[in-house]
Write a structure and sequence with these properties.
By secondary structure, this protein is mainly alpha-helical. It has 22 helices and six strands. Strand 5 and strand 6 form a beta hairpin. Helix 17 packs parallel to helix 22, helix 19 packs parallel to helix 21 and helix 21 packs antiparallel against helix 22. The chain is elongated, with a radius of gyration of 30 Å. The N and C termini lie far apart (76 Å).
Length: 449
């Protein structure tokens, strides 16, 4: 069934107050259902969720974006909202409550009774940490349990678990001591104790580890889930691969916005946000770029006489600025991406920087010689060719250094280096590129001014 037909059928069922939505959950993934919900009016959303059971509503809400979840919960009664929260996994419920106004979140926590303690436990962790994205519905057993006992117990608790692909083994103090996959459990002979078949070298993460580092580790070891432990190695929860995919999308989106000088736009409803809200996030860095442009203008004005005396100098301003911009963007992007993926470790940053200087010098020589020959033959002026070539060499080299050095310094200061690869580097590069160009022209062509 197409999405449009599904939408029309849902609208009809809302109008007729038809509660038989089982067919949709058999033939339509909750994620697709959530996409349809986004196209409904607030009144239609409220009517639709009155027709859904608590479990069905939870399945749909868990597939919605954070902003959509919050908007929907504003339409529900506190009693209904708390009933749906009980059916959601603890990590998703905690994420949703963290987005709600504080008074509403506290009210809902008082209504969900027995589940509130687990959710409160998750809310105390940073949202972007392993603790903030972990689920507490995991499967763990003591090491002295046998295979047949474990399988029998699994049948009982599996429906409530976040994932059953991994069985974690803990000691009397709930400390993580081993892990085995569901396959390893099934193929092991009855009577075998878990301590005999478990893998003791368990890949795990600390509860306060940044979510980006968690995602990197899951990707490195190709895991479906990774256990989260406290300082005493007690098992607190697991982070599953579906949460990791959300983290990767969030981090990439964040880096993209920061590269173009947009602050925290990833948490904003782009369609429903107010003009003032969007302006607060987009205008500051544009003003920085504007200031950079004014500085560039003042540099050109300072060398107005040189431009009037040798008009051909103007012809090469765009190519020098564009080359500097391309090199700076290239260098900053490679560095920022290397830091984000862990390819460039903190201890390796300065080594990478000095290697980048060598690369920059070679690129500068190649581009400088090419530009010098082109400018000299085009204008039949070897001196002008020398000016353009030296300026191109200097600008390309400096742009590569700035494109790496600025994000490196920000990274060492604990600031996301993605901020440096946009307006900041561009403004620095434009002003310095022109200053280099005109300074060289004044020195080598002084007799013409």
């Amino acid at each position: 069934m197409s999405m449009q037909k599904s939408l029309q059928k849902i609208l009809k069922m809302i109008k007729e107050r038809d509660t038989n939505l089982q067919e949709f959950f058999q033939n339509l993934h909750p994620s697709d259902f959530a996409e349809i919900v986004e196209d409904l009016s607030d009144e239609q959303k409220a009517d639709l969720f009155e027709l859904l059971s608590d479990e069905e509503a939870a399945m749909v809400i868990q597939e919605m974006e954070d902003i959509e979840q919050v908007d929907l919960f504003q339409l529900l009664s506190r009693k209904r909202a708390s009933a749906i929260l009980k059916e959601m996994s603890t990590d998703d419920a905690a994420d949703l409550l963290a987005e709600l106004p504080e008074d509403e979140a506290k009210e809902l926590l008082t209504l969900i009774d027995e589940d509130a303690e687990d959710i409160r436990g998750l809310l105390k962790y940073r949202k972007d940490s392993a603790g903030g994205i972990m689920a507490t519905e995991f499967i763990s057993f003591p090491e002295n349990m046998t295979v047949e006992e474990t399988i029998r117990r699994l049948r009982e608790i599996a429906p409530e678990a976040e994932t059953v692909y991994y069985v974690y083994v803990v000691d009397e103090e709930a400390r993580l001591i081993g892990v085995l996959s569901l396959r390893e459990l099934i193929v092991s002979p009855d009577g075998t104790r878990l301590s005999e078949i478990m893998r003791k070298n368990v890949v795990h993460v600390a509860v306060d580890l940044d979510q980006e580092e968690v995602a990197r580790l899951v990707s490195k070891y190709d895991l479906l889930a990774v256990p989260v432990v406290d300082d005493d190695q007690r098992l607190l929860g697991i982070v599953t691969v579906d949460d990791i995919l959300d983290v990767l999308e969030e981090e990439v989106t964040e880096d993209i916005y920061r590269r173009v000088g947009v602050a925290e736009l990833e948490s904003v409803d782009l369609v429903g946000a107010s003009v003032s809200s969007l302006l607060r996030r987009r205008l500051p860095w544009l003003l920085i770029t504007l200031v950079g442009g004014l500085i560039v203008g003042s540099v050109i004005q300072a060398y107005e006489e040189a431009l009037m005396a040798v008009a051909a100098l103007v012809f090469f301003i765009p190519v020098i600025m564009d080359m500097g911009g391309n090199v700076a963007t290239q260098s900053s992007t490679v560095f920022v991406r290397g830091v984000a993926t862990g390819e460039i470790e903190r201890s390796e940053m300065w080594g990478y920087f000095f290697r980048e200087i060598r690369v920059a010098l070679i690129m500068g020589v190649v581009c400088g010689v090419t530009a010098s020959l082109a400018a000299g033959m085009w204008q039949a002026d070897p001196i002008l060719g020398a000016v353009v070539g030296i300026a191109m060499f200097s600008t390309v080299t400096f742009a590569a250094i700035i494109g790496t050095l600025v994000p490196l310094i920000l990274s060492r200061m604990g600031v996301d280096p993605a901020y440096a690869s946009g307006p900041l580097v561009t403004s620095i590069k434009d002003a310095t590129g022109l200053l280099i160009y005109f300074s060289i022209a004044v020195h080598l062509m002084a007799d013409r001014f």
